[in-house]
């Protein structure tokens, strides 16, 4: 069942230790089959060294398990809300990658300080607001997704394919699971460089709107000219 | 003698270089057989590259050597005090892992700034007070243990399975040697992220009690739902 | 065609992931055959894992493709301006290496704080000015090159073989592609050490002119005595 | 000739890339045969990947070459001054390891902030004064050695087996080449932890004299009890 998607989601999950985005099991990647309306996600708390493609869990968009011997990631309800709200998204990732998590813990959005950022994120990477006590105590993971959706608002989620959750860590997404991981790697790198930028020049480092446009649009959209 | 425990303690010690928690021989892990009242610990100053399971040293809770050709870790008396005071603890680790040691040298507890911390430590990771000159000059290693026990106080040691010793470094523990090492790896990662959090937002980054509860209790205790 | 140069440029490009100067495809190296007036450069957006010597693209100094199945690096026009202005230069590199990029994003030149810097760069590594909106909107990559040339001015480009572009990242060069990469590795290391120097002593850390002279000139020029 | 010493010095040099103390050729280790009055040192500017035991250069204490096809390290005259002044020293190392170099560039001694430091260095790791212009312009490398000797003064060099040279980088030493490298690795680690300690607590982090004594003396001298 969904053999190809399971393989893709498995491989995307295995990129997390390879790219040093996770310590132990602190991350999860999912992918969606839009036609079938089914999600494939990493099982909860299983070590990457033991993970196999067939361990991936299949659920529907109500969170109902469809196939798999394991319980899905404890963050599954967050993924589901994002898939429901963001129709363009085909893959989602959550990690506690250390630089992005530092910004999330500081409750700060990552300003666009340069072209490394602008090549992927068309503006600041926002930090979503803290959840209220009630949102935490009832359906915490689902509400995490809803607050992300609230923060993204009218922005096209593909233009800024990542976000920070206050006191928590980053989520990122893409057209499929592999692109979601790619964007999470970039988010971590951008978070690191932005940290050092601020230390070197605490006042004025923002990229101009013109340079932001130039770099984002030379890689994305109909007039892009980067790549083959 | 205690062949299985020696193997576990050996493997836990070998995780230290693998996880980059130690430079040279700057760390030690022990485990206890509660039924026999015997401790197994790394020998003092032996290189990890040369370490073998049979090199592990066996002692009783009075520090009396029971088996082994080597002298035990010079920190053995600290381990013993912790085993005597914390009945739930089955494994203990001491390292000079660099981020945790920076906090220890700064004499500061690590505040709970996010869910990465809350998933493992149910509150700030305390920094124990400095030893008095007299405590240093008489039975230094034993007194290090006693000051840790004093700092933990009435807290269940399993709820915050690690501590910093002022101007020294971290100790961590768990239900066995492997879990102790796991908690030491997390402590180091949490120390690193907290450092960067403070630089990004020196004023207000603390996690709310509600989110701390949510994350700690979704992984620990009778209503936990993380993992399989 | 230019088989030897393609091999050198290919190998220089492969040093980027080896030396951890790039994430994904964020870098490019070129080399020039001055006699033929031809440039060899990495193709745009091709993964390093898949890159082969024969994938290198050959162009003339007007940017006209001469050989190769791929499109050249999107930064080719910048390389061309540098080759046209700096006759001594035989190889050029652009990366987003994180420490150098932090300085570039901060809009700051890297002061010469020590002999590590002085061994390679005979003075501060300058940060070129931001491009005007018009320069960005018309022939951005070419204008990036022209602003670098403007910044270098009358300085011999071989004496300070690297530069930062504001809100962007570093360029470096050398007598060939291999030396360009070597200088980019040094620039990244120097950027890292200078960052920490400033934190430790925000006021006065500059190297004296005499020590700068001593170290630069013991490695470069007719009285050099470093190496074999 | 001095085959055993050449092998030891070669192996000590190879630890530099292994322990990540050097970029390219930025380091050198030497050893001395006190009976013969001969020094063995790395050749200048030779890549570590190509280095062989027989490439080591042999000199006498006047710097006169005795054997070897290569020119010795350009820092040889510094090594010689240290061997002449410090009779207990059997091996010397110089690197540009990044954390120690940051302190050197900042012109600051590394205070003893904890037991990691105290286990090896019996007090602050000093930063030697800058050389005068005249000292730089005449016999620079020899004068670097003389200023180190001046800074160490009446201290037993084995009690604090390392130093920083202002705007330059660290030197370290030991009873042989292997111990010198070991001490340089520790110096780098201590420099890193001290950097982060100061950021976390800019005011008061110093280790007490009693704890410094305890840790240094449990590893060194006649009452030591660390190790086998």
UniProtKB/TrEMBL annotation, chains A, B, C, D:
Span of the signal peptide: none
Pfam families hit by this protein: Aldolase_II
PANTHER family, alphabetized: FUCULOSE PHOSPHATE ALDOLASE, L-RIBULOSE-5-PHOSPHATE 4-EPIMERASE SGBE
NAD recorded as keyword: no
Organism of derivation: Anaerocolumna aminovalerica
One GO molecular-function entry: metal ion binding
Protein name, per record: L-ribulose-5-phosphate 4-epimerase
Keyword Metal-binding assigned: yes
Family note: Belongs to the aldolase class II family. AraD/FucA subfamily.
Record pathway: Carbohydrate degradation; L-arabinose degradation via L-ribulose; D-xylulose 5-phosphate from L-arabinose (bacterial route): step 3/3
GO annotation, biological process: arabinose catabolic process
Protein role: Involved in the degradation of L-arabinose. Catalyzes the interconversion of L-ribulose 5-phosphate (LRu5P) and D-xylulose 5-phosphate (D-Xu5P) via a retroaldol/aldol mechanism (carbon-carbon bond cleavage analogous to a class II aldolase reaction).
Cofactor: Zn(2+)
Reaction it catalyzes: L-ribulose 5-phosphate = D-xylulose 5-phosphate
Top-rank taxon: Bacteria
Domain called Class II aldolase/adducin N-terminal: residue spans: 7-195
Entry's EC annotation: 5.1.3.4
GO cellular component: cytosol
EC class of the enzyme, as a word: isomerase
Keyword terms, alphabetized: Arabinose catabolism, Carbohydrate metabolism, Isomerase, Metal-binding, Zinc
């Amino acid at each position: 069942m969904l053999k190809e998607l399971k393989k893709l989601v498995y491989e995307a999950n295995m990129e997390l230790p390879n790219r040093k985005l996770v310590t132990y099991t602190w991350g999860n990647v999912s992918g969606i089959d839009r036609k079938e309306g089914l999600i494939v996600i990493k099982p909860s708390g299983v070590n990457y060294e033991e993970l196999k493609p067939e361990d991936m869990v299949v659920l529907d968009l109500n969170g109902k398990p469809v196939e798999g011997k394991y319980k899905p990631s404890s963050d599954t309800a967050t993924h589901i809300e994002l898939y429901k709200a963001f129709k363009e998204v085909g893959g989602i990732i959550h990690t506690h990658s250390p630089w992005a998590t530092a910004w999330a813990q500081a409750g700060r959005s990552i300003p666009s300080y340069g072209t490394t950022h602008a090549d992927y994120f068309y503006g600041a990477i926002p930090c979503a607001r803290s959840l209220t006590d009630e949102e935490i105590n009832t359906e915490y993971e689902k509400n995490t997704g809803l607050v992300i959706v609230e923060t993204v608002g009218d922005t096209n989620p593909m233009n800024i394919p990542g976000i920070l959750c206050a006191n928590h860590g980053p989520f990122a997404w893409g057209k499929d699971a592999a692109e979601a991981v790619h964007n999470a790697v970039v988010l971590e790198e951008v978070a690191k460089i932005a940290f050092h930028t601020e230390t070197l020049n605490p006042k004025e480092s923002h990229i101009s709107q013109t340079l932001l446009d130039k770099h984002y649009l030379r890689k994305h959209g109909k007039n892009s000219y980067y790549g083959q």
